[in-house]
Amino acid sequence: MEKYKDNWPETRDHFQAWWQRSKIDRPMLSFWAKREQALADGVKPSAYETPEQSFTDVTLKLEHFRHFLNTRKPMAEAFPNFSADLGPGSMALYLGSDPVFAWDTLWYRECVTDWDSYGEILFDPNNHWWQLHLDMIRQAQDSANGDFLVNIPDIIENVDILSALRGPMSFCYDLIDHSPRMKRYVEQLDDVYFRFYDAMYDIVKGADDSSSFTAFQIWGPGRTAKLQCDFCALMSPDQFREFVQDSLRKQCCTLDNSLYHLDGPDAIKHLDALMEIDELDALQWTCGAGQPDGGNERWYPIYEKVRAADKSLWISLADGELLDAIAAVDRLVARFGSSGMYFLFHYAMSETEGQRLLDHAEKQWG
Question: Residues of the chain whose pLDDT is less than 50?
Fold first, then answer.
């Protein structure tokens, strides 16, 4: 890690403190700066020829990633981590879906016309996409040579996978018309999730059993993952508690570090149910298209509930200029303190500007 990250031991300590909601000298910060001097000369790698290649050609993906690391510096708690994702929700591929590759994402074709024909949800070690994904992760881990971490992919869980397999509209009716069967499927998914997760974790885990996860740039001691249920935007609070809450609780009990991804205003109605999961460690808030970013005071009621439940917060800042983001964090820290707070800055900056941000954080946000 020292090749690309000069404060990795400190970053690890800060992450451990963040998961435990204990105090460090400032909030957690993550941002990348353009290096004043590139670490290596070289021509930028060739462009991908097809969307599928951009997901599955690990050799070329690694060339692009090393070029990025040679020209960009991870500062504060940002760290070099390689994603071998097959899209968000690749467990749908392992369970029978086919991929639709696009330049900016990967979709999964619906594969369940009726649940009777589909049968039970089972772990199939010989599934083509599962074997391909494992090979991609092994190749990345072998090539990393300790220079960067290889992430656990974002395979996703519970009813989001059922919706991908069946299609959202049909699945809405299934929750009502076949609720006992859907509960059984969620329980089966809980089991197979860790069959897949643990196989990947065993490849990429550190010598100390630590791991990093693709979504939201998180690292932790032991099993680490982001959890979600984006389908919950179409569910009532009672349905969420009935079909999803226990599933998430079981995941949190098995994981060592868990971050929930709350996606958009339509998901806020489930915040109380999430905060009832004592084992959940942290919440990440995604504001939704057309909404102000995480620094806006509109979202303070969310943060107040998370802090009252003694959980950590992950907040993204992207609106306006960097000075606007700094002012937003000034207000957030004054209101909620610095312990258990993680701020991701989506701004282009130089190393000098990055150091000024760090200096401000240490002086004003401690």
Answer: none
